[in-house]
Amino acid sequence: MSAAGLPTRHVLSYGGGVNTVALMLLLIRNQEPLDEVVFADTGVEVPETYAYMEITRDYLERYGIPFHIIRKRNGKTLYETCEARRVFPSAIWRWSTRDFKVHPILGYYRSLGTHVNQYLGIAHDEIWRMKDSPSPYVTNLYPLIDKKMTRADCVALIEAEGLPVPVKSGCFFCPFNSIGRWKWLYETHPELFQKAVVLEEQSKHFPAQRLTDQVFREKASVKLRDLASRFADGELPSSDPSLSACGGECMT
């Protein structure tokens, strides 16, 4: 029971990347309480992340742990919402995180009628991201930090379990994408890169604001179409999808 007298439920907030997959394995291996795993779906993850969810679901089924996907109430994806508003996600105001991640998950937790101990997959080398939950019915727990596990430790744990290592999760047009992430998208999912170009150029704030503004802080005139030309010319060689500027920015 919680301090407020409510029953307590233990939930893993799943992001689809290395840290939360490793945390899932760690909790199960150590027989920690885990009632369910939840994922707030913006509808715009890369295809590899959605494919990995099936691996996750199958793994959880072995232990009888449910996996729930939660979406915004109106059913629209983040891309559809951005199209309708003629904007793209703001790295400053973070409305997309609030509306598509935080609020849907907290709304689901409220519906449970319990206190929720929420496991969050933040590794020890990201300890600065720890914070208390703003909701009185949610307590944030950080087992990876408690055990001083780094991202490299998380990768090793996944490999030791015999599972593939997931690509870094995140919306394909995330404003925190690194150059490596953008180039990986350009090479691996050109249709998604082109959708990001369209979204950027149709924004009512373009060209004053661009999806690359976070990564080109000193060269803020760089547009996605510029990046595509540079990629085509063989510039900016790194295409490692793990090199994303997003350090799990959409933590709930």
Describe the 3D structure.
The protein has helices at residues 18-29, 47-61, 78-85, 95-112, 143-146, 151-160, 179-188, 190-202, 224-232; strands at 8-13, 36-40, 67-70, 115-120, 138-141. Strands 3-2-1-4-5 form a 5-stranded parallel sheet, sandwiched between helices. With 252 residues, the chain is of the alpha/beta class. The chain starts with 7 loop residues before the first strand and ends in a 20-residue tail after the last helix. The relative contact order is 0.17. The chain has a domain at 8-160: Rossmann fold (3-Layer(aba) Sandwich).
Give the N-to-C terminal Cα separation. Answer: 23 Å
Query: Would you identify the CATH architecture of the domain at 8-160?
Result: 3-Layer(aba) Sandwich
Q: Give the oligomeric state of the chains in this entry, treating copies of one chain as homo and distinct chains as hetero.
A: single chain
Strands side by side in the biggest sheet: 3-2-1-4-5
Order of helices and strands: EHEHEHHEEHHHHH
| The CATH class of the domain at 8-160 | Alpha Beta
Question: Which tags fit this structure?
Answer:
Rossmann fold
